[in-house]
Specification:
The chain has one helix and 18 strands. With 271 residues, the chain is mostly beta strands. The protein has a single domain, classed as Sandwich (Jelly Rolls), CATH 2.60.120.700. The chain has an 18-stranded mixed β-sheet that branches. A hairpin with a 6-residue loop joins strand 16 and strand 17. The longest helix is centred in the N-terminal third of the chain and has 11 residues. It is globular, with a radius of gyration of 17 Å.
Length: 271
Amino acid sequence: MLRRTSIIIAAITVCAGAAVAGGMAASASSPTAQANPGGTINIVSVHTGTAGAPTQVLSSNWSGYAATTGRFTSVSSSWTQPAVSCNFGNQWSSYWVGLDGFNSGTVEQTGSEADCVGRTAHYFAWYEMFPAFPVNFSDPVAPGDQFNASVQFLGGDLFSLHIADSTQEWSHTVEAHLGTTPALSSAEVIVEAPCCFGGGALKPTAFNVLSLANFGTVSLTGATANGEPIGSEGFTPNEINMVGSIIPRTKATCSGLTEGTDFTCTWVRSF
């Protein structure tokens, strides 16, 4: 989704590991150097859990929890918008709820963003019917804002995507068509390293996941699928931690679930 070739080149350089000295600033608008938030998971490895324990999944772009057994028609969660430390050039992070994308090629999702463009932090909210392009909201977003979001299947290929920032006192409910028959095969609450410049249809791979912004620790609460705790045993919950694609070092790690609905994710490194 970038508009300037020079920014694309700079961002790719950073993702390859070139560090740029910087500090920390803040902006409530979407950045000029914007990657594509959202999209399907890129799985590095899967380790089946013991009876009653979540399956452990390592991914290069997702961390959080996904329910994968059954037909999923709704998902919801709340979170506190984290602040990002912008010390290493262009970096990105997304926080969202969604249906599909764990074992299918589409995702219906909405969430917030915390990105670094040089020394400046940018915060905004969005929704996406992947593989279509994400759509950004123009409303203000700041660290510490309290978000709640949900996605609900309405039938056919139609979904309702709701996101609210109770701190800034705005909300949006969008009804959007996917354009194809949805799988409805997973429900997830995710902290993500976005991927891919240039198109919503680009699938995350081992080579195009971007540098993860340092978000510290984010708390996600009230995570449900089909109105039940996302950690319900019958959903075969997957605990997802983020690692590098090429060198599988931990990038972000998530805690266990409390009451099947609450967890935290913590940044470890950018790539």
